[in-house]
Amino acid sequence: MTVLSTFLGISSESSEERVLRLLIELGAQFAGAQEGSLLVLDEITSELVFAMTVGSKDSERTLIGQRVPLGEGLVGLAAQTHEVQIGAPRFDVPETKSGEGDDGKPKAVLAAPMLIGERLIGVITAVSFDADKRFSSNDALLYGRLATVAGVVVEQRRRLLTIEAMQQEVQLPDGMGDAEKVDHQIAEAVQRLVKAKPDAKPRIAQLLGIVEALVTD
Known about the structure:
The chain is α+β, with helices and mostly antiparallel strands. The protein has helices spanning 3-8, 15-31, 57-63, 73-81, 137-168, 178-196, 201-216, and strands at 35-42, 47-54, 67-69, 85-87, 108-116, 119-128. It has a six-stranded antiparallel β-sheet with strand order 3-2-1-6-5-4, sandwiched between helices. Helix 5 packs parallel to helix 6. The model is unreliable at 97-101 (pLDDT under 50).
């Protein structure tokens, strides 16, 4: 199990994984970053977990699976505030041997939150080892848009997984979030009612309308 599959339900070498990697590569290229990463949210521990890194095989081996607490450094702050953060790193990326700086430490970090609606699912980052590098507001705007696209990719995959699970009458993968699991439980309950009483569909629809009115009132 990869970090992506564990927390996002996205398998290795899937089309979604390739799209996410391409987004990180494009962002790093246009922002002039040596490396870029995708971190996913572990809702149980309130930590971000490195799931993907581009630009350096050494960094990818070093970083995958490492964790950043919410609110810690620029990456954790981006996750906590749901806003793009740029500046000098404090805790964001551990030291790697592949860094181009004299000490192998990042000199500038850009972090953008990945959201589904208002719900945080992860963060994408750009990292520079150049002591003179400063990410700009245009870079922040670009990464905000890339993070939005990444969030859409994850959301669409989760919707497909939910539909597939319903059709096959199996449980959702472990990588699905609590919200998706609750949606699946509701849909399963309605599906069971319709199967049990196919002639009662109008009555079921009426009852669901009453429930909706009570919940939204």
